[in-house]
Design a protein that fits this description.
Blueprint: H1 3-20, H2 22-42, E1 46-48, E2 51-52, H3 53-83, H4 86-91, H5 97-126, H6 135-159, H7 166-183, H8 195-201, H9 205-217, H10 233-254
Helix pairs in contact: 1-5, 2-3, 2-5, 3-5, 3-6, 3-7, 3-9, 6-9, 6-10, 9-10
Length: 263
Amino acid sequence: MSSVDLARRQGTLEIKQFMRSREAVVFTMAFPVIMILIFASIFNDEIAPGVNYTQYFITGMIATGLMTVGFQNLGIQIPIERDKGVLKRYRGTPMPKWVYFAGKVLMVAAIGVIEVAILLVISITLFDLHAPASAEKWFTFAWVSLLGLTASTLCGIAFSSVPRNARSATAVVTPVALVLQFISGVFFVFTDLPTWMQQIAAIFPLKWMCQGLRSVFLPDSFAAAEPAGSWELGKVALVLCAWCVVGLVVCIRTFSWQNKYSR
């Protein structure tokens, strides 16, 4: 069997395992949908000419969905597999090590596409979110989503080395994801946050994912309400690419196939 076939079969296995885990499906896929249904139904005030809170919040939740699928999902799932000895057994097989990671990447990509599709359908049909009106907007949507999902995936694999065991994984990863959402302009208009909070959020990828997606779904006039007075798409791409590199380097240097605390 070729390496490509191995990776494809590993990806299929990962997707099946994910879909069979009720908790993973609920927290990874259902959470952004539930939050949109709740917040968009309660808050609908206009935050700028032609832009209401619902439109702003939905773009942030799409970015959150991508981060949840990559960072939060892998940051919790991998420590569980490590604690159960699954990774140790994988390492002892003839299967190339990269195939394991390829399976995770394929799983994240597939679930990410499904997640975004669900969020778009709900937002466009129920809450009047306007689909991108031009090929340029769709292209921006594609590269922001791809870079954001890649950065989230690599950071999730890298962060999976932080929890000491499977039991602490959720407690360690989930607060980090929630804090990033609160300071990155998902639940609140970013420029309404304290300056120090904006500066901290600007270090991490979620803020830039939200900003890039706002350029796709919100009117161009709203760019004036951003901190720099523009969408800064070049900077969005630069920061997300930098996090892809950082995440990859940390993965290579820190990933462990067995629980180092149980040795």
